[in-house]
Amino acid sequence: MGVEQKAGKLSGAADVTEERDSERTGGDRPATAADRRGQSSASAELDGRKGRATPSRDGRGVKLSPPARLIRFLREVVAELRKVIWPTRNDLVTYTIVVLVFVSFMVALVALLDYVFAKGVFAVFGNA
């Protein structure tokens, strides 16, 4: 490669950088979303028109009565309960034992702390 070819490659890279910089200025980019859609935001204000209302997303136009909503809710509850993986009897016994042991430990800890603090208070302030 000659010196001229290397210089040509470098100037080509500079041209690409200049093109990117010119694209980033955003001079030809529309200022607002209305301008991008081909509508002028100034013309909408002058005409007094607004955008149309957002359509309903779920497609239901009619509101259900309270009993119908309750029935629908209960059906959905039953459908969700069918999806639950229920624990086996062995799992229930294990969980119950774990909970009882933990609760017993916490009761003993609180009782011990109560006893220690009571002795400390009586030692400092005496039996009055």
Q: What can be said about this structure in brief?
A:
This protein has 128 residues and is mainly alpha-helical.
The major sheet is characterized as: none
Could you give the order of the helices and strands? HHHHH
Number of helices: 5
Q: Outline the low-pLDDT stretches.
A: none
Total strands: the figure is 0
Relative strand content:
under 5%
The end-to-end span amounts to 103 Å
Radius of gyration, whole Å: 38 Å
Helical content band? 55-70%
Globally, the shape reads elongated
Which whole number gives the mean pLDDT? 78
> What class do helices, strands and sheet pairing give?
mainly alpha
Notes on the structure:
With 128 residues, the protein is mainly alpha-helical. The protein has a domain at 86-128. It contains five helices and no strands. It has helices at 3-24, 33-36, 41-47, 66-83, 89-125. The termini are far apart. 0% of the residues are buried. The mean pLDDT is 78.
List keywords for this structure.
single chain; mainly alpha; elongated
Blueprint (SSEs and pairs):
Blueprint: H1 3-24, H2 33-36, H3 41-47, H4 66-83, H5 89-125
